Amino acid sequence: MTAVHWVAADGTDLWGARMQMGLSLGWHIIIACLGVAMPAVMLMAEWRGHRTGDVAYRLLTRRWARALGVLFAVGAVSGTILSFEMGLLWPELMGRYGQVFGLPFALEGFAFFIEAIFLGIYLYAWDRMATVPHILSGVPIVLAGVLSAFFIVSANAWMQQPVGFREAGGRITEVSPWRAMFNPATPPQTVHMILAAFMVAGFAMASVYAVAMLRGRRDRYHKAGFLLPFTVAGVVTPFQIGVGDWAAHFVASNQPVKLAAMEGVFQTARGVPLHLGGIAVGDELRYSLEIPYALSLLAHWNPNAEIVGLLTVPPADRPPVNIVHWGFQVMVAIGFGLLALSAWAALAWWRRRALPRSRWFLWGAAAAGPAAVLAVEAGWIVTEVGRQPWTVFRTLRTSGAVNPAPGLIWGFVLLAVVYAVLTVVTVYVMRRLTRDVPVPVAPQEHDVSQTRVV
């Protein structure tokens, strides 16, 4: 990796700023995914419990609501840190272009407060409101969470495809915030992220119950706790594969250098193969398995289509190839692995109306949660690192957006301590929640609620 990616021209601590932002984004995105999709799964459980009278679903809803309250509080902390970092670490970005792409951040603030208000109502009104109105009070939580994801990702999409302004002589004119928010990259990026959130939340929630089932807990509560979120994630997975293909086509047409980094293509050519694995050494990708013509076919629906190589731009304008290439490989491999696991479950349910009996399936389901998180992290690495060395694509370099103050690495050290503490506290509280005995739903359900559940 060349030095231009890590040290600004004036010697400022570009590496420290990047490490801070990378840590904050990488940590927050996990909590954000759970916050976006968990409310929907929670409301599905409450509605099913109401319609069927199944006590297990009602207990699950209470357990998940308590966990959501904890995650919302933690996410508010990490989100606040990120909002400060945008201004402190990248003052040139916000100072010059804040008027252009600041609208989504403002709208996300409204969505956040709506979510906070209705989450408070939902948690407080358990025994003070009838079931249907209580479920309806949770609907704004779902909508606000999805809208929050849309607004934030649309701001990032603008950094990939900056539109909605004119710049001349260092001055920004003809600003159109709405056009900036609904830029060409917004549709594929926002849909891809929202579906990813449902995959992360669904598989992560299901993995907890898969582990319990591996330990012999096969009662109704654990089976329901596994089946509902796993089904949500499994249904979303094939759609996410299709949206991922849509996003890849967009990158091929609008960010060809990023595509070249994703696939390790250095020479511009036609009929380019798809590379599985491999390491970039110098100006060559080595040790990869090639599928002839596949990249040209997948990127442009033409086996002889031209793929632009990295050598068409100067070294200073190329993203770090190995990081982007392997991030993409990991994301795609996990995506298809989760698709296969979902298909296995669907086939068993179609044949026997039951989950697969193999413990291998449960082991796979237990691993699906961490794997989905890893896939999202890898996907964001591809999105963000693949855009480098640009903060605003072809408009503002990252080295030109960074805070000129030296010593930003110490901010990273402090931030690492903060996130370590947050992680320990969050894990501790969540584990305590899994050990507590749920509050009885009704006197006749006392026997079910008194079992210790995950």
TrEMBL record:
Pfam families: Cyt_bd_oxida_I
Keyword Metal-binding attributed: yes
Keyword Magnesium attributed: no
Membrane topology category: Multi-pass membrane protein
GO molecular function, one term: metal ion binding
Transmembrane annotation, as ranges: 25-47, 68-90, 102-124, 136-159, 191-212, 224-243, 323-348, 360-382, 408-430
PANTHER family linked to this entry: CYTOCHROME BD MENAQUINOL OXIDASE SUBUNIT I-RELATED, CYTOCHROME D UBIQUINOL OXIDASE
Family: Belongs to the cytochrome ubiquinol oxidase subunit 1 family.
Protein name per the record: Cytochrome bd-I ubiquinol oxidase subunit 1 apoprotein
Native source organism of the sequence: Thermomonospora echinospora
Classification lineage: Bacteria, Bacillati, Actinomycetota, Actinomycetes, Streptosporangiales
